Amino acid sequence: RNQMKNIEWVTGNNFTVERGQQQIEELISTWEVHESWLHWTEFLQEEELKDSTRYHYRVCWSMPTRRKPIPRATASIYFVIEISKIKPATLPVEVFFTLESSRLIHRPEQCQFNEKWLKDIIENKIILMERP
């Protein structure tokens, strides 16, 4: 059963940068990723647009091991939380994310996160590093 997992997002009028970061963590906790993956989340910037304000975050993933406690490569997922200046502030924020090295925009309520995406990013980086 491939059911979309999403969370109840904060409304525009209750949004804070910290709350956004907590909610991204909450969403990630619904993803099925192996426990050996570690990640950290950081707020990057606020972007003012004509019709909305966008808050940009980065979640950096790695899979350290006992043999290699410092991973050779990491994979980043970039989140945007958007608050409309047109729609009522009582509506939930809009959320989307992109994977490092991809322009495809994912919406949490429309796509099932796939751990393989993280593995592919890291494997591709390692291949590039090993090229002569």
From TrEMBL:
Q: Which Pfam families does the UniProt record give?
A: AKAP28
Q: Name one GO molecular function term.
A: protein kinase A regulatory subunit binding
Which InterPro entries does the entry mention? AKAP (IPR053084), AKAP_28 (IPR025663)
Name the chain's protein.
AKA14 protein
Organism, as annotated = Hemiprocne comata
| GO CC field | cAMP-dependent protein kinase complex
